[in-house]
Amino acid sequence: MDIKNLNEVPSFITRDGSEIRELLAHRNSAIRNQSLAEARVAVGASTQEHFHPRAEEIYFITHGTGRMRIEAELRDVKPGDAIAIPPGKKHKLWNTGGETLRLLCCCAPAYEHSDTVITGAVP
Predict the structure, then answer these.
(1) What is the mean pLDDT of each run of 10 residues along the chain (123 residues)?
(2) All domains of the chain, ordered by start, with CATH?
(3) Which among 103, 116, 9, 105 has a CA at the least distance from the CA of 64?
(4) Could you count the other beta carbons within 10 Å of the beta carbon of residue 123?
(5) Predicted TM-score of the model (pTM)
């Protein structure tokens, strides 16, 4: 049985600049076709705009407030919001609040640096 505690999982920085704690993936568990991680974006910070050619993602906001852009659509997000990000869609997330923006991120297939393409777009 694989059980990982958020407070015991090391963090790393993804290609888009967010701090990630990968809870379950092929690197640390029996899971083979997806990954679950908590991402954190500091106050006033944002991810770099990017897309994933293969992976679809679900973001689930747990703490803080932000602004999400997928392609040309821009929406404010808050705790309890689930965001669907299809493969190939450019996206970016800003922390617009006064606390660290925290979210669960599910990727299928699992997150890989090699499946992250930074677009170089300006804010």
Answers:
(1) 96 90 95 97 96 98 98 98 98 98 97 91 58
(2) 39-115 (2.60.120.10)
(3) 103
(4) 8
(5) 0.93
